Amino acid sequence: MDTRSVKTAPPRDLGRDELAAAVEWYGKMVLVRRFEEEAEREFRRGKIGGYLHVYSGQEAVAAGFLSAIRPDDIFFTAYRDHAHALFRGAAPGAVMAELFGKATGLAKGKGGSMHLFDVARGFYGGYGIVGGHIPLATGAAFALRYQQADRICLCFLGDGAMNSGSFHEPANLAGLWGKQGLCPIVYIVENNQYAMGTPVDRSSAVTNLASRFSTYGIENERADGMDFIEVRRLAGRAVRRVRETGRPYAVELLTYRFAGHGAADLFQPYRTKDEIAQARQRDPITLLEDLLRATGALSDGEVKRARADAERVVTDAVRFAEESPPPAPEELYRDIYGADG
Amino acid sequence: MAELTYRDALRSALIEEMDHDRRVILIGEDIGVYQGTFRVTADLLQRYGPTRVIDTPISELGFVGAAIGMAMLGLRPVVEVMTWNFSLLAMDQIVNNAAKLRYFSGGQVNVPLVIRGPNGAGVQLSAQHSQSLEATYAHFPGLYVVAPATPAEAKGLLRTAIRSQDPVIFLENAALYGLKGEVPDSDFALPFGKAAVVRNGRDATVIAYSRMVHAAVAAAEQLAGEGTEAEVISLRSLRPLDMATVVESVARTHRAVVVQEQWKPFGAAAEIAMRIYEEAFDQLDSPVERVTGADVPMPYARTLEARAVPHEADIVAAVKKTLGKQ
């Protein structure tokens, strides 16, 4: 399935709650897009160092899933993680401050763009080694069920991660533990078509990535990751099922990364401008906006206001990050060992 | 006090901690039905059931990583690696996740995890199954690295390890599992970063850990027959390293020999010797000597293997060298 060939879905029968949630999450997606554009600008200004991987184009994936879980559920993702933190309710100022390497950042300026954490909200991190977080999320899901909680774990991963041993080994464990109802996890493959610059058909012998979970006895499906409503409905079903059974489930969502792999990926020799322009025809935010306008849930004025709100929140976040102090020198040696260390 | 083998000392620490804390679970290859390759987990599956004693497939990366995730969520997993050689398959998880999670999350998570199993040479296990990886792991901030030499140390350090808030690299030794020794009863724990003087002496200090402590004691006894009194220190943990005990001893003996089973270049003894130079240079009457394994992949042939690992005689010679008696 190529998402670029899928036409915009016509207005559907949306329940009142679903519509209200869609309007709310539309605003969050607008904010995340604006945040990422600003992060790229701040990177070019030299305010953000290291690596910077932005989420533009993939918003419906994280939004769809994070709008479908409970406040006590948890999730893990890789290094393209700003959106996940923001969608879950982390203060935009604290996220931007982390990118700026400031003491007020989510991780006190010690993690940076790739290592956002907000454990109080169930966000167990952004990780920088491709696939390296998949075993952690799998074990975390086991721990939730061991503690006899009906909480669940989401594990976001990219298409590139699926070719590493750190995907296959925990997937097998999840299949095994799931037989005993001990692994309440949803693996969400954000198939944005490229592992850095290598397309899926040059990195995976089987390009239907969802089907690869079948090897480990994990039920799976594949869907359009550009359509917020579809992702959210699918997420609701997947989450309910995993919560009830304690068995893992996997979803491959077809999406597209509008920006480069990272802020240093300037020339993108692996794809054409035309391809990107075509993908932008199915911008997940525009798709949702069109749908909500068509149903009358969103007026021109409300669209304008959402954009203005995002502008204001991002401007405030940048100001907060700019004005925050750097970490104190003694922070260098803190947080290596716990209280008993 | 009870007399226990090193194996049973470890096992009794696991049982007592599992009885006392339901968060403690065991994970590893063939630790349940098979009872553990070295029987450290014998009968524990029967005692605690399959959700607390988890037999895993052969996937070190997967189950070590999963255990880290369990620890982040508040469990206290004790992972058995069949030997530390196999931990290399999980090294990314140990080094990039377990050791650093607290730091790069800005202190938001604990990783109360123990990884335990035999380290070092066995008997004719050849190149892939005989490595000593203590310096490799001790290099990384965020890990504890401990290496007990006796049943009492094994039990006391394992208890501390299980109760720790941070990942512990717990290095056992296959040759020690059958060793018997007195172990204090009840709630006995040994802190990390506190070495033990296991033999007193005035002429030279021999610093060792794990199995090499026994070679050092045997060497000291031989030297005593010749009128030289060597002090022997069991470090117990390499990270943290108890330099206070080492320096205090060297300040009395003025000579130091550091013993390790692993390869000489960039090994634990290099670090310890350098710390002695940094912290007690003026106390030394002669250069610090190192006794180490041969700088070769471990050969299979019994005759060659015997030449590749350090022996009591090497320690005797090194002590004599510090005394100018060669």
From TrEMBL, chain A:
InterPro entries: DH_E1, PDH_E1_Alpha_Subunit, THDP-binding. GO terms for molecular function: pyruvate dehydrogenase (acetyl-transferring) activity. Residues 28-330 form the Dehydrogenase E1 component domain. One of its GO terms (biological process) is pyruvate decarboxylation to acetyl-CoA. Keywords: Oxidoreductase, Pyruvate, Thiamine pyrophosphate. Its cofactor is thiamine diphosphate. This is Pyruvate dehydrogenase (Acetyl-transferring) E1 component subunit alpha.
TrEMBL record, chain B:
Keywords: Oxidoreductase, Thiamine pyrophosphate. GO terms for molecular function: oxidoreductase activity. Residues 4-179 form the Transketolase-like pyrimidine-binding domain. It comes from the Bacteria. The keyword Oxidoreductase applies. The keyword Oxidoreductase applies. Its cofactor is thiamine diphosphate. Pfam families: Transket_pyr (PF02779), Transketolase_C (PF02780). This is Alpha-ketoacid dehydrogenase subunit beta. It comes from Candidatus Segetimicrobium genomatis.
